[in-house]
Design a protein that fits this description.
The chain is α/β, with parallel strands linked by helices. 38% of the residues lie in helices and 21% in strands.
């Protein structure tokens, strides 16, 4: 008998309404199906430490979707994606954009490949490599990370992919004052946004960086 995820689906719907984001019922259902697969695979492969289903909706889906208003261009890279967060929820919400999700963990990239295949998500490419060793065939407009590393490490490890019009988007918890102060001269802070995640009583910030000479 199929598990009932109606409570989680309602939580997602109400959370999205609270953020005023435009995400269709079909897209929301696809996100819930993604969590179902993640829950199933997690029992065998330990892909995420979050196992409470409501917490997964909040910390995997809503916590990713609050960055949507700043996702633009045509191609986005999610580095250190883990089980596909935030790249897969963002890709479901933005089917017109091309997303690449990158992680060095083979179990996690295999899960994402299987999930996007089962769910028919066609705008996501999956790559297995360390960030600093990844050499894409064409440049990205944006590179995003969530709970990935220090800002300096993020800049250093994506250095080979930098070009004048690129944006680096770092999703952070508390405002990273010391990390901003330690940034290399090669980048500048383009924007810093305080994010509000429904049902999550924790700080969230989005730091947007760009090359200094852009």
């Amino acid at each position: 008998m199929a598990e009932d995820w109606s409570t989680e689906a309602l939580l997602l719907k109400e959370g999205i309404e609270e953020t005023s984001l435009s995400i269709s019922d079909q897209q929301q259902q696809q996100m819930i199906e993604y969590l179902k697969l993640l829950t199933k695979w997690n029992k065998a492969f330990n892909l995420t430490s979050i196992t409470d289903r409501k917490e997964m909706v909040i910390k995997h889906l809503l916590d990713s979707l609050v960055a949507l208003p700043w996702i633009k261009g045509t191609s986005v890279l999610d580095v250190g994606t883990g089980a596909g967060i935030p790249g897969v929820p963002l890709a479901i919400a933005k089917p017109e954009l091309s997303f690449t999700v990158l992680d060095s963990n083979g179990k996690k990239t295999r899960f994402i490949k299987q999930a996007i295949s089962e769910l028919g998500i066609q705008n996501v490419q999956v790559a297995q490599a360390r960030t600093e060793n990844f050499h894409p065939e064409s440049p990205f407009q944006q590179i995003i990370c969530r709970a990935y590393s220090s800002l300096t490490k993020f800049v250093e490890q994506t250095g080979s992919m930098m070009h004048p019009s690129i944006e680096l988007l770092a999703m952070k918890g508390q405002f990273p004052t010391s990390e901003i102060e330690e940034l290399p001269n090669s980048v500048v802070v383009e924007d810093q946004i305080e994010l509000s995640v429904p049902y999550l009583h924790e700080q969230r910030h989005l730091i947007i960086l760009k090359p200094r000479d852009a």
